[in-house]
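stuck on this chain:
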Amino acid sequence: MKLKTFFGIVFLFIFNVLLSAQQDSSKVSITELSLKDGATLKGNVIEENDSSLIFKTLNGLTVNVPLEKIKSRKFITGTVKNGQFWPADPNRTRLFLAPTGKSLKAGQGYFAAYQIFFPFAAVGITDNFILAGGMSLIPGATSQIFYFAPKVTPYQTDNFSVAAGGLFFFSPLNSESIGILYSVGTFDFDQNSATMGIGMPLSTTEGISEYPIILAGGEIRVGRSLKIITENWFSSPLEGGVLSLGIRFFGENLAVDFAFFYPLSGLPRGLPFFPWIGFAYNL
C-alpha cells in the first residue's frame, strides 16, 4: 500500500502541475543553417539574393551569409523560452509505450526499440494517418511476435488532438491473436501535456472484452532536453493496472526513455518495480 500511495501522490502532483503550468515561451518555426566550416545558425532569413542571404539569429544578431558557405538549411520547430530555442520532442506521438493523440506529418517516420528486443517502426502516410509495426528479436525463441499499429488522428490543433487506432499481436505458431482498440486525446499546456484514453482488449477466440482499460498519462518538460513522464493503465473493474514514472532525454532527432513500472497486482517479493528502457530516432 505504501508504494501505491506514493505513486498516487506523484500522479496527482504531476497533473496539478500540468493544469496550472504557465511558462514564458512561444511556439516557433525557424531556419537552421549548417555552414561548411561546421558552424550552425538558428534564426530567420530576412532577405536573400543570388549570392547571399541576410540572417537574423535568435540572439538578435544580423549577419550576411554567402550562399557558397552554406552546407544545408532546414526548418525546425520548437519553442523559445527566455531567449533560448528548445527543440520539440521528437517522440511526441507516444508516452513510453502508449500513444498520444498527436500524429506524424506526411513523410515523417521513426525507428524505435523497447526493452531492446522489441523494435518498432512508424511512418506518416498523411498528416493524419500513421502505419506502424515490427517484430520481436528475442534470442533463442522458436517463434517471434509480430505487431501492427495503425493510428488515425482526425482532429489536431496546437492545444488538443484526438486519435483512434489499434495495437495487434500475432505469432505464426499460434492461431490466436490479441490486441487492443483505443481512442486517446492529448491536451497541451505550453511545454506540458496530459493524455487520457480508453482501450478495448480483444482476441480472435473471445472477441472484444466487455471491460475497458483506462489510460492516464502526462508529460512535464523540466529542461531544454528533459521531460518527466508518467503512463498509467487501469483495468475495469478496478482489479489491477500499471503505474509508471520516468524521464525522457531528447535532442532534435533522438529520444531516450528510462522509467520504472509498478503493477498494482504486485511483483514477486524483493522486486517492487521493473525497469523500462526505450529509444526512438526520427528519420
Summary: The first strand starts at residue 25 and ends at 35. Helices lie at 2-20. Residues 20-24 have pLDDT under 50 and may be disordered.
